[in-house]
């Protein structure tokens, strides 16, 4: 008996086509009609003899010059529509929810720092807000992004400078933040001190570990073999880290209703906390690293049953 089936190519094509959404088929036809019309107007001829270089130039011309039927640029029309939708609360795309300080505190304290997994997640929950991390920033954080501040005599000040050498999309070469962010000692509540936890995590890294990533995979034998190291020489996956905030909320037993909880909630919570402290929008974006004040407005918009968070406008110098 053969391990291979006998389904014909025509039958396979029908099955594949049957799984393609109707809107996708319509979109393909629409784009193809636009492209053929464009080629006709430009007097481009597509044939088996068309070279790759010629085809590349045709596609470049099409991509740059293609406009809507009314002559408007696609990007300008899209941006205008997006701004119009953002002005309508019920049409606005739900942003990652900012959480109350007590809720975030509960999500932090559920983790036991005397375990490899618990130490990393507790540190993550604290510094992701302190540093206003974007959703995927934690998965790309590396040891060399952190540097202990020193006085002229060489002694440390108790602050740790954070300045990642990657852009928002972790691409594009070295690109430092214009202003560093800082981890500061929490002497009032040492249990939640980010500097102490960061140093503890550094100490738990085995000398043989070569990976520069901040968060590493837990060694499954850490508590089964005397003297076993806590972490393996491999970073925690991005998909795993992306669930840490939501996992913390569930572990803390929080009733979050319909709130959208993601790792980006750290950044939203940071903005919310700064706004509640009375800082103006310009001061907030300087701390969080947002491009402009429009970037933080979604985090300050009201949700059903809650008032809008008001920022005190920064006084002019």
Automatic annotation (TrEMBL):
Domain Tyr recombinase span(s) in chain numbering: 196-302
Pfam family, one: Phage_integrase
Alphabetical UniProt keywords: DNA recombination
Region (Disordered): 294-317
InterPro entries hit by this protein: DNA_brk_join_enz, Integrase-like_cat_sf, Integrase_catalytic, MAVS
Domain of life where this protein originates: Eukaryota
Record flagged with keyword Transport: no
Protein name: Tyr recombinase domain-containing protein
Species: Molorchus minor
